[in-house]
Amino acid sequence: MAQRKSQPFGYGSDVVGIGLAAGEGRRSRPLTLKAKGYLRSKGAIRLLGQRLMDWIIKTLVGEGVYHYIMVTKGKENRYQVKRLLGYGESLGIQVRYSHTRFDKLDRGSADATLLNMEQFDVRTPTFVFPTDSILEVDVPGLLEQHESRESIATILTFDVRAEDAIGKYGVIVTDDDGRVTEFVEKPSAEEAEELIQRTGSDVFLTNAGFYMLDAGACREVAGCSEIRRMRERSLDFGKDFLPWLAHNGYPIHTRPIGKVGDLGNIPAYLETMLRVLRGEFPKADAQLGYCYSRDRRIWIEPETLGAVDEWTGKTLEERIESGEVTLGRHVRIGKYVQIASGVHLDECNVDDECEVYADARISRSSIGEGSIIGPAAEIEDCVCGVMADVQSSKSSPTHLSGYSAIGDEAVVRAGVMLQDGVMVYPRVKVPRGCYCPPGAELTTSDDVMEWL
Fold first, then answer.
1. 303 and 186 in one domain?
2. What is the count of structural domains for the chain?
3. Residue 3 domain-assigned?
4. What's the chain look like in SS3?
5. For a Cys-Cys bond, which of 119, 166, 335, 439 suits 352, CB 3.0-4.6 Å?
6. What is the pTM of this model?
7. Is residue 427 part of a domain?
């Protein structure tokens, strides 16, 4: 009997999405920590009530991408990502995972992408994306440009001022038609000035980390002896593969990304959260829940809005209307949240089943699912993980500020002041009288004792 020839992955004209989910997320601690030494996948970080992986996949499904390969690494990472997505049944998509035998390899993002293109026989246009960002992108428009210009790669880019690029961002130089002619890796001040003189602009293009690739052409290039030698060491997109393609005359073009938000550290996480709440990612609005006030951009789930307060006998909606609970702008409140009278919320997210007690004030912050915020607590520019316990009282209020972060199930006693980037790891207890210098990381009780 003749064997049936299998179809290539994402056969036809469908775009295949390759998600780079293997990163450890160390910059995002303690958000990526479940316990000391146990890192979540970056895609498992929660943002405004959803896992980050859900945000990006739902966005891409809305753009017509239904076939995915997730590049994972190691048992924990693979298990976490598979728990989030499964094989895509619930979203009506197809999801496959990089083979476990690739886990021992750590040779860069481009090498991982080429390995999986070959393994799954990908021949159609391929959209490569990181899983630690959210984005708005016009995939059909991107694909049309990519194919009309016969590009081997189209790089999504964003603008950055020259002074901000120095030593921080890789810069892309293009000709008048948008074809890439040169890559400059994190330019020095002298290199930046030379680029300004040469291009006549003090605004540079930089790589956003999202790519549309011609899978067939990339697989053909992968057979080149020079690329094979490079892959034995490392082959990253930005540092190695794309510069090699440009240097060897392959057509690479750029396209401005619609919107992109990074969640790589605490300040970036909060900035991205606020950008979504303020409406900079319009397509995300539908994922925020029930809209209580469109003008003020406030979302409150009905289970919370209609819940009767045990002390006053009034619903939250009644207490908001009477001024007993005050809301500023750009607020999202999840399901079954208890909010006492005297609370003020402004530009913040409060996830499901949180308890926020009398006279607490929360601004420009995110409070994780099941957390407790005590009376008169003041939280500003901070992130609290799942089931954090921020104890406080009117006589001994707790103050958290300055991009500090409280890990899952951590406890902060009443009267504690944490500011300027202090990180409290999961399940650590911070007693009253603990003074932490800027940037301190409280990973265990021993760290806490050092600052008592």
1. no
2. 2
3. no
4. CCCCCCCCCCCCCCCEEEEECCCCCHHHCCCCEEECCEECCHHHCEECCEEHHHHHHHHHHHCCCCEEEEECCCHHHHHHHHHHHCCCHHHCCEEEECCHHHCCCCCCHHHHHHHHHHHCCCCCCEEEEECCEEEECCHHHHHHHHHHCCCCEEEEEEEEEHHHHCCCCCEEEECCCCEEEEEECCCCHHHHHHHHHHHCCCEEEEEEEEEEECHHHHHHHHCCHHHHHHHHHCCCHHHHHHHHHHHCCCCEEEEECCEEEECCCHHHHHHHHHHHHHCCCHHHHHHCCCEEECCCCEEECHHHHCCECCCCCCEHHHHHHHCCCEECCCEEECCCCEECCCCEEECEEECCCCEECCCCEEECCEECCCCEECCCCEEECEEECCCCEECCCCCCCCEECCCEEECCCCEECCCCEECCCCEECCCCEECCCCCCCCCCEECCHHHHHHCC
5. 335
6. 0.86
7. yes
